[in-house]
Structures are given as structure tokens and as C-alpha cells.
Write a structure and sequence with these properties.
- It comes from Microbacterium dauci.
- This is Transferase.
- By secondary structure, the chain is mainly beta.
- The chain has a single domain, classed as 3 Solenoid (UDP N-Acetylglucosamine Acyltransferase, domain 1), CATH 2.160.10.10.
- Helix content is about 0%, strand content about 35%.
- It contains no helices and 19 strands.
- Strand 1 and strand 2 form a beta hairpin.
- The chain is globular and about 50 Å long.
- The relative contact order is 0.11.
Length: about 140
């Protein structure tokens, strides 16, 4: 039987240990908190300090940087990138290859389409069709 973790060296020469999430086999860094009911698909990387709530779905190839928060039932489509300290609200849906910048906020139940770039520190709220709501 294979090991349930992998060690990866970062850009600063530090070795980080990632464990394979039981529900999907995505890689979870030590110090991240992922609810057991969340799905983290293989090929996803969850960095230290990240919090992922119950029922969240994280697709293949997603990279979630340190200290980001993914609320319950949020869906992050394949190959999206969630920046450090970003927050994704409950039930929000993030599209394929979408980039959410550092410290950005996506409101609950928002729909962010494919290939969208949400800037650092930006706050965004949409309806379920993806139309932006007034702040």
C-alpha cells in the first residue's frame, strides 16, 4: 500500500508535506483545515492555513493559496486559482481557469464565470446568472 502523503519543495527551498484528502485524493498541506465532507479532487493543491467548509467541491488542478477561506457548499471548477487570504462565500461557484486575487471576497451564492480575473482585494457579488449586483 502506498504512502498517504507527498513532500514538495517550495521556491524558498522549504519542504512542505501534503496529505491526500480521503474524499478525492487532492493534496492538503499541513496546517490546512478541510471538512471531511468536502471533495478535493486529485491534482488540487491546498496550501497551509486554508479553511474549506462542509460540502465544498474543489476541482482538479485547483490551487488554493495560504489562508484562503472556502465556505460551505462552494464550488471551485477545475484549474481555478484562489489567491492568498481570499474568501469564497457559501454556495458560490467559481468557473474554470478563473483567478481570484489575494484578499478578494466573493459573496455567498455568487456565480463567477470561466476565465474571469478578480483583482487583489476586490469584492464581488453576483446573482445566480452571474450578473453583478450593486455594492
Amino acid at each position: 500500500m502506498g504512502k498517504n502523503y507527498i513532500d514538495i519543495e517550495n521556491d524558498r527551498g522549504e519542504t512542505l508535506r501534503y496529505r491526500k484528502h480521503a474524499n478525492g485524493r487532492g493534496l492538503i498541506a499541513n496546517g490546512a483545515k478541510v471538512h471531511p465532507s468536502a471533495l478535493v479532487e486529485a491534482g488540487a493543491y491546498i496550501e497551509p492555513g486554508v479553511q474549506i467548509g462542509p460540502g465544498a467541491r474543489i476541482g482538479r488542478g485547483v490551487w488554493i493559496e495560504p489562508d484562503a477561506v472556502i465556505a460551505m457548499n462552494a464550488e471551485i471548477a477545475p484549474h481555478a486559482h484562489i489567491g492568498p487570504g481570499a474568501a469564497i462565500g457559501a454556495g458560490a461557484k467559481i468557473g474554470v481557469r478563473t483567478f481570484i486575487g489575494a484578499g478578494a471576497r466573493v459573496a455567498a451564492e455568487s456565480l463567477i464565470g470561466d476565465d474571469v480575473n478578480v483583482g487583489d482585494g476586490e469584492s464581488i457579488a453576483t446573482d445566480r446568472r452571474g450578473l453583478r449586483l450593486a455594492a
